[in-house]
Design goal:
single chain; Rossmann fold; 4 helices
């Protein structure tokens, strides 16, 4: 079972096009060296993203840099049309991880899930680590529960 994951909040976006703006692209690109550092040596990584344009544009940058495919799902997005459902989001992630026998998962999502999923996933994996974070656009959390348990917050 996977013991390492990254949760990323999409980058800044244009409220008319709903796509990443130049700042959002820079925010995501700024995370790439840190993502590469934490994925080095991991053999089976899956990328999951919300189906919102700003999130998918963010994951495309990461996917291109890591040369990995990605999956999109409405289960990682919440708004008036998609009410937040942490259980459904977790079940989707676990299904994808198990189906693909992933060692690591990178999740690109929005404010609500970006703030809550790290703690939910840590608890699901049977760990008792208190996680309190509030991710701004273009920020991420890296959780490694393998040998030495660690939690990293990156801006």
């Amino acid at each position: 079972m996977f013991r390492k994951f990254i949760v990323i909040r999409h980058g800044n976006y244009d409220y008319f096009t709903m796509d990443l703006d130049a700042t959002g692209e820079r925010q995501i690109r700024k995370l790439l060296p840190i993502i590469k550092e934490h994925t080095a040596g991991v053999t089976n990584i899956i990328l999951l993203s919300s189906n919102a344009l700003r999130a998918e544009s963010s994951i495309k940058i990461i996917s291109g840099e890591l040369n990995l495919p990605y999956e999109v799902s409405e289960y990682l997005w919440c708004d008036d049309d998609y009410p937040q459902d942490n259980r459904r989001a977790l079940n989707f992630i676990l299904h994808e991880v198990n189906q693909k026998e992933a060692d690591m998962v990178i999740i690109l999502t929005h404010l609500e899930y970006a703030n809550e999923l790290p703690g939910i996933m840590i608890n699901h994996l049977g760990e008792q680590i208190f996680v309190e974070n509030s991710l701004s656009k273009g920020e991420m959390v890296v959780v490694d529960l393998s040998d030495e348990k660690s939690f990293y917050y990156h801006q």
